[in-house]
User: Which sequence fits this backbone?
């Protein structure tokens, strides 16, 4: 029995257990990713349901107004789901790779330069070998300006949607449970899988999409945000669809700049999938991993926030 003057022996308080919405254990992480996907699907369905109350440009999914509206609503769906998760996890929305301070900033334009360089190098090589011909310019004057503006805005929206959907919350959360590179493989394989249903797509093109997804995960890790990937994604698609007027992931869109033609062995020109399935694009993509490695070294202060936070939460 303790005397009045002796200190009481009080057991220390147990360490606080991690909150469900910040628990780094894999089952909790997978449940949060599942919740995010359900929310994204629900928000997207609701936004498209609301759209049905407004006039649409016919029934064609490739009509410019329908293309733009669809991509914007898909981005709105994944963004709204991520916002809900940020409230539940008590995090800043920018921690999921899309900080507002980086919007259209240096990293975005660096990525845009990479995207245009990649597609220009692929088609420049094919042109030098006689497999690609730019053809006659097909649009002029006011029509040219309208399509130029449309494709610039459209592919920016595509970049925002697809990068935030695959390299945003999903990448951030999975990094907590399985580590950055296993998470990158999972999100990149999913990124490739959703392209399978594109008309004209083939397995080589899907493989190229997966490799591209891994590259964009690498830029996320080295730059700390997905703005570089958004710029590169948007610029590559813009160059492929409008500037060089060739198939984009198996889809031939309206509003081409020219009557371009691709002809030659499928392994060289990409077949129906387009130049992103060309062997030259694979070579260039692999070289870009090295370029990114040299430009953004691992010991820089741009290491992705998701990696840092996953270590912090694991130690909590």
Assistant:
């Amino acid at each position: 029995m303790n005397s009045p003057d002796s200190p009481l022996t009080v057991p220390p308080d147990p360490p606080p257990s991690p909150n469900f919405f910040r628990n780094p254990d894999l089952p909790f992480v997978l449940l949060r990713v599942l919740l995010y996907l359900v929310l994204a699907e629900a928000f997207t369905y609701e936004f498209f349901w609301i759209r049905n109350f407004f006039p649409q440009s016919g029934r064609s999914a490739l009509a410019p107004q329908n293309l733009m509206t669809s991509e914007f609503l898909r981005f709105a769906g994944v963004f709204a789901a991520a916002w809900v998760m940020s409230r539940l996890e008590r995090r800043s929305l920018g921690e999921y790779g899309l900080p507002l301070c980086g919007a259209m900033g240096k990293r975005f334009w660096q990525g845009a330069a990479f995207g245009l360089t990649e597609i220009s190098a692929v088609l420049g090589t094919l042109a030098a070998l006689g497999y690609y011909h730019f053809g006659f310019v097909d649009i002029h004057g006011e029509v040219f300006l309208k399509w130029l503006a449309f494709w610039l805005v459209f592919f920016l929206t595509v970049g925002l949607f697809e990068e935030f959907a695959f390299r945003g919350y999903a990448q951030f959360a999975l990094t907590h449970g399985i580590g950055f590179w296993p998470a990158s493989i999972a999100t990149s394989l999913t990124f490739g899988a959703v392209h399978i249903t594109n008309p004209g797509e083939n397995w080589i093109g899907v493989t190229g999409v997966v490799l591209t997804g891994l590259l964009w995960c690498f830029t996320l890790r080295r730059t700390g945000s997905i703005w570089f990937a958004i710029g590169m994604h948007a610029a590559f698609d813009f160059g492929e669809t409008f500037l060089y007027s060739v198939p984009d992931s198996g889809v031939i869109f309206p509003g081409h700049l020219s009557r371009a033609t691709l002809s030659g062995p499928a392994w060289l020109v990409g077949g129906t999938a387009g130049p992103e399935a060309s062997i030259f694009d694979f070579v260039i993509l692999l070289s870009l991993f090295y370029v990114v490695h040299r430009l953004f070294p691992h010991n820089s202060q741009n290491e992705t926030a998701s990696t840092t936070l996953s270590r912090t939460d694991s130690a909590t």
Observations:
- Residues 4-10, 308-316 have pLDDT under 50 and may be disordered.
